[in-house]
Amino acid sequence: MDLLTPSADALVPGATLAWLALVGAFTVLWLVSLPLRNASIVDMWWGPAFVLAGAVYASARPDPGPRGIAVLAVVTAWALRLAWHIGRRNVGHGEDPRYAVWRQQNGASWWWFSWVKVFFLQATIAWIVSWPIGAAVAPSPAFPSIFDVAGLTIALAGLVFEAVADAQLRRFKQTAPKGAICDVGLWRYSRHPNYFGESVVWWGLYLVAAGTPGGWTTFVSPLIMTWLLLKVSGVALLEKGLTSTKPGYAEYVRRTSAFVPRPPRA
What we know:
- Helix content is 67%, strand content 0%.
- By secondary structure, the protein is an all-alpha fold.
- The chain has one domain.
- The model is unreliable at 1-6 (pLDDT under 50).
């Protein structure tokens, strides 16, 4: 994957430039986080990072065409909704406990280590996950292909699913007593329907990429995103300790799928 020069033949044109742009943007965020003593500002900018990467990929194509415009529109809608959701939840509430623990563990070295462990790492992961966007911004085959229709439909369905799940959880928290378990709406069928929807978005975008020459090779991107949601920053992280801190959560786990929605067990 080359990658600084525009090329209609490159699988992911501008990939190196996209990585440099992401590292540069996240480094600026890191510098902002230092006087704020709040590394969790990075979370709100996770989504917009993909808009930046997509813009670089599009600029590296002689003509991104209607496929590129459609993909970038979906990515932008997903990114803005996620940034709004995280910002609304986090702004004014101090540093996320995950980062606060790391800050305490690393002491005086956290100021520079946070760049490596949080900002540089997230920039690199975002770059890898963004590869299907770069592959999908291609002039061939003619748009729309069956891959385009199926992939964009799946991605939009995932976006709607994720948004509805987040809205249901937000409404539940506004009226439910503290410590109550949200098991209504989509949360009746999955313990993490918002993360499932996000995974679906990226598999849909990959399907669009798979319909372009060589685009199928970017399958590592949705795999990594799904793995992160299941094993690292999503399901595994949130569920750690919930069984002991929320009465009834063990029963909720017993009857409800962790990720892929399905009817609850009797």
